[in-house]
Amino acid sequence: MTTDSPLIIALDYPSLDAALCMADRLDPERCRVKVGKELFTRSGPNVLEALHGRGFEVFLDLKFHDIPNTVAAAVLSAAELGVWMVNVHASGGARMMQAARERLDQEGLETHLIAVTVLTSMTQEELAATGVDADLEAHVERLARLARNSGMDGVVCSARESAMLKRACGEDFLKVTPGIRPSFAQAGDQRRIMTPREAIDAGSTHLVIGRPVTQAEDPMAALAAIEQELAAG
Ligand SMILES: O=c1ccn([C@@H]2O[C@H](COP(=O)(O)O)[C@@H](O)[C@H]2O)c(=O)[nH]1
């Protein structure tokens, strides 16, 4: 089943049962779901089969970052599991991203392939501590341009960078933005945040939302509030 909704709910749970319990409350016509490192490491491809069986399109968020041959093979394995979207780290470089793109194209697979720019949990100071002296936004732009020129369909970035990337890389280039925090939610470990409405207005194409829904006292009410905020736009 496919959906027009920009919402991707991050199923960050420690077990298959817990993740499916939430998935069973969600509607694949109203959102996609994301499987990340914790859940996939615990449950493996079974979780994808279970979510696909329930009609969800799945973003497999494993952020591959390795030598080109290894990343290309990993991206192919993910795509062959039928996921809707998979990602790599743009800082793995052009050759790595191109290898992944070529492997998918060779096999005729249409899985969306995107690249992480700078994690939404990072600040300018934290980026500098890794040895990157550039302004954070300029670094995101540089990585996004590299990703686009290496054949990526889009990037993971903060919604704070979506407007800039819309200008730099075009409207069709996907801007998948975690770090979404409705007014009722805590920032937690996220640093570059925006509300759902602000993110869409800035040009985000997809909003990744985890704890504001999954850890809410009433997850369905939290999701409904987010949908209302977007509809009110
Ligand atoms: O830069 C990034 C890349 C990925 N993520 C992932 O998105 C979700 C966000 O969850 P929240 O609970 O809404 O913070 C999570 O799975 C991260 O691994 C990100 O936050 N930032």
UniProtKB/TrEMBL annotation:
<comment type="pathway">
    <text>Pyrimidine metabolism; UMP biosynthesis via de novo pathway; UMP from orotate: step 2/2.</text>
</comment>
<comment type="function">
    <text>Catalyzes the decarboxylation of orotidine 5'-monophosphate (OMP) to uridine 5'-monophosphate (UMP).</text>
</comment>
<feature type="domain" description="Orotidine 5'-phosphate decarboxylase">
    <location>
        <begin position="6"/>
        <end position="226"/>
    </location>
</feature>
<feature type="binding site">
    <location>
        <begin position="61"/>
        <end position="70"/>
    </location>
    <ligand>
        <name>substrate</name>
    </ligand>
</feature>
<dbReference type="GO" id="GO:0004590">
    <property type="term" value="F:orotidine-5'-phosphate decarboxylase activity"/>
</dbReference>
<keyword id="KW-0210">Decarboxylase</keyword>
<dbReference type="InterPro" id="IPR001754">
    <property type="entry name" value="OMPdeCOase_dom"/>
</dbReference>
<feature type="active site" description="For OMPdecase activity">
    <location>
        <position position="63"/>
    </location>
</feature>
<comment type="similarity">
    <text>Belongs to the OMP decarboxylase family. Type 1 subfamily.</text>
</comment>
<feature type="active site" description="Proton donor">
    <location>
        <position position="63"/>
    </location>
</feature>
<feature type="active site" description="For OMPdecase activity">
    <location>
        <position position="66"/>
    </location>
</feature>
<feature type="binding site">
    <location>
        <position position="181"/>
    </location>
    <ligand>
        <name>substrate</name>
    </ligand>
</feature>
<feature type="binding site">
    <location>
        <position position="120"/>
    </location>
    <ligand>
        <name>substrate</name>
    </ligand>
</feature>
<dbReference type="InterPro" id="IPR047596">
    <property type="entry name" value="OMPdecase_bac"/>
</dbReference>
<feature type="binding site">
    <location>
        <position position="211"/>
    </location>
    <ligand>
        <name>substrate</name>
    </ligand>
</feature>
<dbReference type="InterPro" id="IPR011060">
    <property type="entry name" value="RibuloseP-bd_barrel"/>
</dbReference>
<keyword id="KW-0456">Lyase</keyword>
<feature type="binding site">
    <location>
        <position position="12"/>
    </location>
    <ligand>
        <name>substrate</name>
    </ligand>
</feature>
<dbReference type="InterPro" id="IPR014732">
    <property type="entry name" value="OMPdecase"/>
</dbReference>
<protein>
    <recommendedName>
        <fullName>Orotidine 5'-phosphate decarboxylase</fullName>
        <ecNumber>4.1.1.23</ecNumber>
    </recommendedName>
</protein>
<feature type="binding site">
    <location>
        <position position="34"/>
    </location>
    <ligand>
        <name>substrate</name>
    </ligand>
</feature>
<feature type="active site" description="For OMPdecase activity">
    <location>
        <position position="61"/>
    </location>
</feature>
<dbReference type="GO" id="GO:0006207">
    <property type="term" value="P:'de novo' pyrimidine nucleobase biosynthetic process"/>
</dbReference>
<dbReference type="InterPro" id="IPR018089">
    <property type="entry name" value="OMPdecase_AS"/>
</dbReference>
<dbReference type="GO" id="GO:0044205">
    <property type="term" value="P:'de novo' UMP biosynthetic process"/>
</dbReference>
<feature type="binding site">
    <location>
        <position position="210"/>
    </location>
    <ligand>
        <name>substrate</name>
    </ligand>
</feature>
<dbReference type="InterPro" id="IPR013785">
    <property type="entry name" value="Aldolase_TIM"/>
</dbReference>
<dbReference type="Pfam" id="PF00215">
    <property type="entry name" value="OMPdecase"/>
</dbReference>
<comment type="subunit">
    <text>Homodimer.</text>
</comment>
<keyword id="KW-0665">Pyrimidine biosynthesis</keyword>
<feature type="binding site">
    <location>
        <position position="190"/>
    </location>
    <ligand>
        <name>substrate</name>
    </ligand>
</feature>
<dbReference type="GO" id="GO:0005829">
    <property type="term" value="C:cytosol"/>
</dbReference>
